[in-house]
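# step 3/5: fold
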Amino acid sequence: MSFSFASMNEREKRMVTIGGIVAAVLLLMAVIFPLNRSVSRAQERVEHKQADLAWMRRVAPQLASAGPIGEQPTTQDSLLVTVDRAAREAGLGSALTSSEPSGPGGLRVRLEKAPFDTLVGWLARLADRHGIRVESASIDNANEPGLVNAALVLHTS
């Protein structure tokens, strides 16, 4: 049995027409409008990021001419004193078991049962604030979660 719009009575035609209009409106509301809002938000984010990029490009020459970021050494303390003081400030004083000179501008350091996260932060601060870099490192598990034993050779830049 075949149905066509022309074979329907007037009431059925009106119901099909109204149903089609309601379906089209629901389709617009459920799919098209949210999609349009998402596209508008994405365009706003892109414009904001483009403005940020333009600002960064404007200030980049000023930042580059300002020199390296971080504090520069303010005293002429020896490498041994600087490393020891920084270790104590970072809470690694009890983990620092030995330190001995290792050639000009070098220091061999041994830490035992040091918290790994604290150790990494301490090394980053030594580099940023004092220009002391890690020349070599050997880090082993201290058989306790989060703790390590480390043998480091530090050098002034």
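# step 4/5: annotate
DSSP finds three helices and four strands in the chain.
# step 5/5: archive (pending)
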